[in-house]
Amino acid sequence: MPTELSVNLNAVAMLRNRRDLPWPDVVHFGRIALRSGAHGLTVHPRPDQRHIRFSDLPDIRHLIDTEFPAAEFNIEGYPTEEFLALVAAHRPEQVTLVPDDPSQPTSDHGWDFSADAALLKDVVARLKGQGARVSLFADAEPGAMAAAAATGCDRIELYTGPYGATFADPAAAEAEAARLGATARAAASLGLGVNAGHDLTVANLPRLVSHIPELAEVSIGHGLTADALEYGMAETVRRFVSACAGRSPVPTGQG
Asked: Is 254 contained in some domain?
């Protein structure tokens, strides 16, 4: 199966939140993304609402339900009771749990599956009881996958920040991709699906996909939104979909 693209709308929301104005419109750009080939939309509603606001969630849910019923809504965050209440209210197809401190600017590490086993088992069971697929943010550590599987989760989401940071060093990029690939194989051998996200670009996605043929989904926000400033959202999504298939994107205006 091809790797699916979920477009993270947080960076669009961050631009909107710089002013007390309704643009850029998060739902509008979500609609463009889904029309252009994205499989789903991702949001990370942080407690301070500095990116996605809680009030955005019903509008995104409505967009998917009424216009793109085959698409998926992915809500990610740390499992506070406030977060879990948002999930229960808006019924995402997938919930991605991350071990973030509320003050972190962005997710920057995976779960310690052994230390956090009790918390994760409880929350995973709770979310699966509501019908959600549950994915857990994970570092590239093959040996940690047995503990991840023991939580009862459906998937892991590989944290690809260290891989993204190798953009100027091809040898380091290959080494990081190999580590991610080994972790994905370990996860798959235990029956876990594999997602990935963080600092992924059209340039580094083909290498990642080649190392992880079982990669089900990538969630991309920052790099995709940056490219949209140059190419527009529709063309950018098409470029990322092409990269998810392991192909170099067709130059804009061609093909």
From this structure: no
